[in-house]
TrEMBL record:
Organism of origin: Vombatus ursinus
SUPFAM superfamilies membership: P-loop containing nucleoside triphosphate hydrolases
Protein function: May have DNA helicase activity and RNA helicase activity. Probably have ssDNA and RNA dependent ATPase activity. Plays a role in ribosome biogenesis and TP53/p53 regulation through its interaction with NPM1.
Chain ranges of the Helicase C-terminal domain: 392-571
Entry keyword annotation includes Protein biosynthesis: no
GO molecular function: ATP binding; ATP hydrolysis activity; RNA binding; RNA helicase activity
GO biological process: ribosome biogenesis
Chain positions covered by the region annotation Disordered: 30-77, 687-730
Record domain Helicase ATP-binding: where: 174-355
Annotated compartments: Nucleus, Nucleolus
The entry's keywords: ATP-binding, Helicase, Hydrolase, Isomerase, Nucleotide-binding, Nucleus, RNA-binding
Name used for this protein in its record: ATP-dependent RNA helicase
Amino acid sequence: MAADEGLLLNISEDWTFPGFHYSEHKKFPRSFGAEERRGTPKQAKGTKRKFQGAIQGPPPKQKHEISLPPAKKTNVKEVERTVKGKPEGLISPKKHPAVPANEGQVERPFIKTSSLFKNNPEIPEIHRAMVKQVREKVFTSDSFHELGLHPHLISTINTVLKMSSMTSVQKQSIPSLLEGRDALVRSQTGSGKTLAYCIPVVQSLQAMKARIKRSDGPYALVLVPTRELALQSFDTIQKLLKPFTWIVPGMLMGGEKRKSEKARLRKGINILISTPGRLVDHIKSTKNIHFSRIQWLIIDEADRILDLGFEKDITVILNAINSECKKHQNVLLSATLTEGVTRLADISLHNPVSISVSDEACDQPVKGCKAAREASHLQASAEPDSFAVPEKLQQHVTLVPSKLKLVTLAAFILGRCEFEKNQKLIVFFSSCELVEFYYHLFLQTLLGSSMAPASGQSPSASSRLKFLRLHGNMEQEERTAVFQKFSQSKSGILLCTDVAARGLDLPQVTWIVQYNAPSSPAEYIHRIGRTARIGCHGSSLLILAPSEAEYVNSLASHKINVSEIKMEDILSILAMDDRFKGRRWGNKKSRSVGPQEIRERATVLQTAFEDYVHASAERVSWAKKALQSFIRAYATYPKDLKHIFHVRSLHLGHVAKSFGLRDAPQNLSASSGNKRKSKLKRLDLHKKTQSKHRLAEILRSEYSSGMETGDAKVKKQNKHGKPSNHTLQS
Ligand SMILES: Nc1ncnc2c1ncn2[C@@H]1O[C@H](COP(=O)(O)OP(=O)(O)OP(=O)(O)O)[C@@H](O)[C@H]1O
């Protein structure tokens, strides 16, 4: 008897999922297609959800309750297809077109539910340890007037930036920085750290007795990890400088022609904002950059900048500055200053003050190496690695078998964007190739002709599905355009890599979805921090495979609380969209669809993805490359997360489904036994020697200076491995 027969589960009590109202579903059937079989992929440590009254056949019918009928009646392995009223027998879905454009005119597609909902690993119960989250107060009641700033600067803050009261981090940082102290500044995402350093820089430079001249060159250097962040910081500084026209800001961010950057450097930039790689390129290749007058060195997202690949750049920059200018004020900032910052603080800070909003007692002078170590304990609790999360951010997690990941993501996007107004989503993936793949897949399927709005459905609902993508392999011009477009838009879905995780201040983002789990709790914090900024509301959803459920406890150990949303509830949204109606269900009203029909609708959607991918050999190869990229990224999880994210626990055939592939690619999965073991062993061995290198490569591609040679750029573009536009549009 299959494990999913007639099982009922209590839905978690803390189930709070804005936008969905399924209160009548007090109990929900056992997870779709859980199986009892040997050799199931590694189970998570959590206990499996308990079956209640499993073997007695159908559950007792309850009012307002959805339950799966017993397997004998409902285990729909294959549904007979009827063409013009004649049964045709069992036919594979591969031979059938995707979703018809218009119900009534075209035969409803044949549906095979067995492959998608069968043989999935058990979804474990999440034993969530409730932790007390670290909280920070965002605003103070104090105004900027109290800081003794130049009156024109105050009026610019009030009238141009339209801000009146200081945030907590600004209130704590600005006076210390104006006193000339080096500082480590930590406060939660979206709490106003940019102004916490920009205001003192502008105040001090405008007050210099000998008026700054453009030709003096840089007085302040601001290092940020990404080009978009450079653009954003530049914009803020430019606004603050409105009354002080003699101070010239400028940025180096790659993507722009080196020649024109050189020309701007030659003319003079007084406040220089740059990514580390780009600045190093200029230090090495141009004679137009000097640091003899540097007074400020600001390193925003300091912990990120320290990550693999950047440390060398920072050393080059620090050496270049120190060789020309002995005395300057240094500031490191991030929402997640951890022990990783120790080395950087040691080499760059002198007698720093550590500023933490969540623990005012830490706002004390600290010395030397100790400063750095104490900086890693800047949190409110005694725990070293606890991060504050904005109070109005609701964090969720859902456990989804690999096979169902793609349809679950699609259903989630449809649910938010088709049926609700003004929803702005950011979906994080683990590599550029994945972003490219899913971006084109969604464009061509969810917005393509095969999924044209069903009759009766408002066209505006479909037009709310506006997909954009952002990753490090895109040309800078396009990156900037996307960033600005998403920034200004009221709704839409941005598919991206971690290039968008740090520091970006995109207004009114309502949901953060993490399709691939982040590589560290710090990255988790930064990703979700793109919503619920500066006291606003926001939500996040982390999608995990059952074998990754332990990650919830890993987050809890960093004082991060997530509440569970059941996958079934996300898929339920398909009930509202008749494009996914299976033929079997005829004209049945959408509102009363049961779990079996939801399964079938999910299968219709999955079939549309698979049909699209399998329409040409080129697309299949493109999907395989995306799958390979996923596996490569999966192999780079750090050691302390390997027990949760290990390539060995991936069922390649199942993962392949989430790429619209019907089977696991041969070269990635050996079928069984020794062959498979030895392949995995080789993969593991190779991985050990390569993973560091690979991670560096991944980070490099995300945060490159943009100064690669022509050849390198071509290589980058090919890395997408996507088919030509022609094929994609066909
Ligand atoms: N005093 C203030 N009053 C109102 N809004 C403010 C104030 N200070 C900053 N903001 C706004 O808050 C938003 C977030 O600020 P900012 O981007 O500096 O946050 P952050 O702490 O650097 O976040 P992250 O850690 O994600 O980089 C911005 O839109 C900014 O304009």
